[in-house]
Design brief:
Layout: H1 2-12, H2 31-34, H3 45-50, H4 55-64, H5 73-90, H6 97-122, H7 127-131, H8 149-166, H9 177-186, H10 189-217, H11 228-268, H12 276-285, H13 294-314
Helix pairs in contact: 1-10, 1-11, 4-5, 5-6, 8-9, 8-11, 10-11, 10-13, 11-13
Amino acid sequence: MMDEYVERVARVLDGEVSLSELPEVQRLPRRRDRRLDMPELELGMLDFLSLYGCQLQYVVGERNSVMGRVMDPLNRLRYELRFIQAARDCLPDIDREKLKENVQQAIDSKLESLPVAIWNATWATEEIETLFTLSKGYFPVAAESNPVSDLSADVNRLNSTVRSLLEGQLDHSLDYLGEVHQRWQAEYRAGQLLNSARLLVARLDDATTLIRSRLGDRPLCIDGKPNNQSDIVRNMFFSVYIERIQPYMSDVRNARDDLIRPLATLSEMQAEMRPESFQAWSRQYLGATGGNSLWQDLDRAMAEHTTSWQQLLEQCGLRPGA
């Protein structure tokens, strides 16, 4: 659709078709580069045995099991929260002062490392890689419903949970996160949006170059009087640009607001945890502003293209709304 649009613009303006090469979209950094090392903290065996009858014993036992040693990031976060809660519940029942100090130190240490577990359970998961995969093409054209509505609701709910956890409010159920991760694995909308934004920037700039070239060459209309060619241009403007291209641009921008911006919030809330490679990627593909922001570049391309059309049609007194 976008290639054809550039070709149509070139044809009605007597210009030469030139489709620029699409710039590369950088993939989400590799999981091993996104995942942070979790500090290991376990009670000594004697202390563990002395806690018989306390719930913390069972929580620590779960971590020491075969399955506990290979927890995925989400289950590890759940474990960290259960540990803190169980240890806090145990404290009033511990008589030995030294053991009480050890448990309190364990709680403090777990609280300190909790942001690492939160980061790993959000941005270092396998599931988010599928959400951002670039191998599933472009954002759909003229979708019947909002393709990102469920994903948007998921991320907004996740942001609320992460914000509360980082503020020390730990009594949150994470049961819903399993379904969120399943949706991330089943839908590829974030990656499709990045592909579409890149395509729109390139092809809108291609068409803008054609229009500007005509503006700098010879006027479409003499003395503002419409002619046969201006009628053809006007018809193409409404039948292609207004009816097909503009709605797609709007769909991509709305989906950006619904999905990419909440994901940007999820990243910004955890800015202190972000690995260096992820910081650069986040600024470029999630950030709304900044020198290399894809979304700022899209806003620029759309604005410049709209202005070019207005200037061209104004030569013939055909500017919309005039």
